[in-house]
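Aim 2, interim progress. The first record below pairs a target sequence with its structure tokens.
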Amino acid sequence: MVAQLTDDVLLSELEPTAEAYLNRHLSAAVDWHPHDYVPWERGRNFAATGGDDWVPGQSRLGDVAQAAMITNLLTEDNLPSYHRQAAGNFSLDGAWATWVGRWTAEEGRHSIAIRDYLVVGRGVDPVALERARMEHVTNGFGPTAEEEARHKTDFLLSIAYVSFQELATRVSHRNTGKVCDDPVADRLLQRIAADENLHMIFYRDMCGAALDLAPDQALNAIAAVVENFRMPGQGMPNFRRNGVLMAKHGIYDPRQHLDEVLLPTVRKWQLFERSDFTPAGEQRREQLANYLSTFEGQVRKFEEQRDRLLARKAQKSEQPAS
């Protein structure tokens, strides 16, 4: 039986790699400013300062775009929870601490920019948005009790989770920009998606280094994340409703989760080509392969149901009014 490495050992062994990837990130990151992405000329006062409060007809965004923008923003708003998790599972010293601080600062720009865009342009109800932010940030986000009980290495579980989650967030932001029917929103969300891509590359490559250091342990964490993946927005107000709208309209759906997030990342790590797993690791890899095959079937079923639903909706809209 292969000895399990503790988080302290993993963090220590991987810190030189973290420093190299941090420096790579800093050389690639773009210095941008939220105020440059907000259409300030659309703004005017609300009632408290002598103007008019928000009413639904003021929004330029359709229902789907509003749902996606709110979901994306509230996800970014929960940054205090994500920072707490990262600081606790990584380290408060050296390259790890520098990375966590830098990542937090970059993520903070995302919520600033999206909120300014929505409030200035009256894209959504600002009162409802603020109430949802208060509720979501108060609830926070973290591993479930079941996840904590199953895994003793929080670091590996965290690094595996964000490898997929950052990519999922990139996909969601990019596709949200496309449905807003506003070049200003599209430009803003392209900028944010580019940040998320750089974050994903750091985490994905760190997870790859962990696979080289502790193959069975890292594989077990990766498989657990894939099999029990939760978007960070889960638990926010109206998450299910908004998530269904986003899935129905191709912003983030099961097919994208499989084809654009799970499979590319697994292929990058060459999980099914590696020969350094123990027999127990090979068995866990087979379980993961079976899960991905089963999930493919679930994806096809979802697509068939969605296509039938959209076809019925289109048919009804074409029928003349009686």
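The second target in this work package is listed in the same format:
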Amino acid sequence: MPDAIDPINAVSQTAGTGSPIIHALFGGTFDPIHYGHLLPVQALAQLVGLNKVILLPNHVPPHRPQPEATAQQRLEMVHLAIQDNPLFTVDTRELTRQTPSYTIETLKSFRQELGEQRPLAFIIGQDSLQTIHTWYKWEELLDNCHLLVCSRPGYKSQLSTPEMQQWLEKHQVDTPFPLSQKPCGHIYLAATPLLNISATDIRQRHHQGLSCDDLLPPSIQNYIDSQGLYKQ
């Protein structure tokens, strides 16, 4: 496994002389990491002008069943998936936390390290946007970051209640430019590729002995096979 690096410094060193660099975070259980994670975020990076995306593997996700793979196995799969892709780096602060991984606490941790003025963004999918009002202290998210929302098949950009839709419209921006001009507070709905791939489906296909070759990188498939993962 590669040596641990400081993702904040790794991202900061890429900053040029133009607009302030946006520090972008993308969290997930990554059980396993797959093309549905990687390809939309790569497209998002091109749309927004992200130089780096920091992946945040969760240890104890508060809103979903516990992972089948161990924390160490999921981290190894993340490293394998991004080893030849300079866009991505990894931060393990959520993975080493023994309590549930609440996004707001992670964002405040990054904000403390970055300072108050640097743009910080958190990447989610449209599915998560639909349920964001159920997140712990969700009202504080935009006080600490921007939200970059990737498209998901079958999900509308319209939110479930008039109040939530009003919240979205209040903070939504139509172009990426404002994201680099403020440290937080905007929501950008990105037209990223619609990939109908889920880790749940991949695990179920493995349970049934079906191929997943078109759903995740070969290095991840090889690791899953070598570790005997998702056999139950």
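The radius of gyration is 17 Å. This observation will shape the mutagenesis plan for the next reporting period.
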